[in-house]
Write a structure and sequence with these properties.
six-stranded parallel sheet; Glycos_transf_N_sf; seven-stranded parallel sheet; Kdotransferase; Rossmann fold; alpha/beta; globular
């Protein structure tokens, strides 16, 4: 009865979803692509394929990038597999297209009505469904269970906040989590949260993001541009709304910290010449952030105007660089000496610091890192990240770090050691997924 009421609510919400997509599509045209897919309607028949179809759902950009290493590991074990990728966001779908080989498939995640989910499964006929990190939908889980199609949650994470929200909706959430075939959390803390909800936790297999290899060419390009600039660069990485304004207001009155070193005057001068770089988390905010920078009285130079030669230095140094491009975080981490961790200076949980460490860029993070709690603690213990109480303290610490060559070099070395120590999740997850799929196929053969 409870799921029936939920199903009715989701069915009634379909016109609202279409309206939301059209509004979002006015700024991001990708949301207007193939809207009928959201409701389980597909215009093209599937080409024949002999191998298994492995369905991987990566809702947004971050999950899709993390899943790339898992896709590679799965192809090594299942060379004849057909990959079916689904997404919820336009940036996720655009990034996912890079993972496709001839014969692979891509579609939007079906809206969680009974009809859309059934049509999706009938059309694509996957042998297993792999949900990445956090995506759980009650009807999807129930219908996959009815069809005896295994559905698993890989590289799973669940913050205390998300756990509290799930417990408030326990009447709906508990059957959904319990209906999964397997859950492989990133950390022991995540495992405890999933156990609380009755999920079938099989093993803690780690975080896929550690296995991702940043684009070495992008890192090298960023470092070359920094050398050309001739001054230290501090970035706020994946900044969220409110953090850019707070940073700009701090910079209006910023003065170099007092560093107890020889050559104090030279050090203070270098710190005062820091180039500040802002890279917003969401691309739809690029224009608004550029306007905000100018409204606060700063000049701005945008990555989208640099081309392949890097920032234009002939006209003098702009106050702020703005990273308004997609798929270039490795370039920005190469460009920066130190990164302030976006999302951690407001109660938003923090963004992923693992990529920064893999690029050799030390991180200064605020108090709010519950989205990546264990990774943040481990990075801090390793010396790859430093924690501060607020953004003002973060700006001051970053300014200290960029002019202390010994300390900065130690932090960069710690980044490499931290990244290397936690690799291997992709292979472990791929083996576990294939085991569940093969066990399901064997079970169907026996019962058939």
């Amino acid at each position: 009865m409870i799921r029936a009421l939920y199903s009715l609510a989701m069915w009634l919400a379909q016109p609202l979803l279409v309206l939301k997509l059209r509004r979002r599509g006015a700024k991001e045209p990708g949301y207007l692509h193939a809207i009928p897919e959201r409701f389980g309607h597909y215009s093209q028949p599937l080409p024949p394929h002999d191998g298994p179809t492995v369905w991987l759902h990566t809702v947004s950009l971050g999950e899709t990038r993390a899943a790339a290493v898992l896709v590679t590991a799965l192809r090594q074990i299942l060379p004849d597999m057909r990959l079916l990728l689904t997404h919820g966001t336009a940036t996720g779908r655009a990034e996912g297209a890079k993972l496709l080989l001839p014969g692979d498939l891509q579609a939007w995640q079906p809206w969680d009505t009974v009809g859309a989910t059934q049509r999706f499964l009938r059309h694509f006929k996957p042998q297993i469904g792999v949900l990445m990190e956090t995506e759980i939908w009650p009807n999807l889980v129930a219908i996959c269970h009815q069809r005896q199609m295994p559905l698993v949650l890989a590289s799973a994470r669940l913050s205390d906040k998300s756990l509290r929200q799930a417990e408030q909706l326990a009447w709906l959430a508990r059957p959904a989590y319990a209906g999964l075939n397997a859950v492989w959390p990133q950390t022991p803390q995540d495992a405890q949260c999933f156990n609380t909800l009755g999920a079938p936790v099989r093993a803690v297999l780690g975080n896929l993001k550690f296995d991702a290899t940043p684009d070495a060419q992008l890192i090298a390009t960023g470092r070359r541009w920094r050398e050309q600039a001739g001054r230290p660069v501090v970035m706020i990485a994946s900044s969220r709304e409110g953090e850019e304004l707070a940073l700009l207001q701090i910079l209006k009155t910023f003065s170099p910290p007092a560093l107890m070193h020889q050559g104090q005057e030279a050090i203070d001068h270098e710190a005062s010449q820091i180039q500040w770089l802002i890279v917003p988390r969401h691309p739809q905010r690029f224009e608004a952030v550029a306007e905000l920078i100018q409204a606060q009285g700063f000049t701005v130079s945008r990555r989208s105007s640099w081309g392949t030669e890097g920032p234009n230095l002939s006209a003098g140094a702009p106050d702020i660089w703005l990273g308004d491009s997609l798929g270039e975080m490795a370039l920005y981490f190469g460009l920066a000496d130190v990164a302030l961790l976006g999302g951690s200076f407001e109660p938003l949980g923090g963004q992923n610091l693992i990529e920064a460490a893999a690029c050799g860029c030390p991180v200064v993070m605020g108090p709010h890192t519950f989205n990546f709690a264990l990774a943040s603690e481990q990075a801090q213990e390793a010396g790859a990240a430093l924690r501060v109480a607020d953004l003002s303290s973060g700006v001051a610490l970053a300014a200290e770090l960029v002019v202390d060559e010994t300390r900065l070099d130690q932090a960069r070395q710690a980044c490499g050691q931290f990244s290397q120590a936690h690799r291997g999740a992709a292979q472990r997850l791929a083996r576990a997924i294939v085991h569940v799929m093969n066990a399901s196929v064997a079970g169907l053969v026996r019962t058939g």
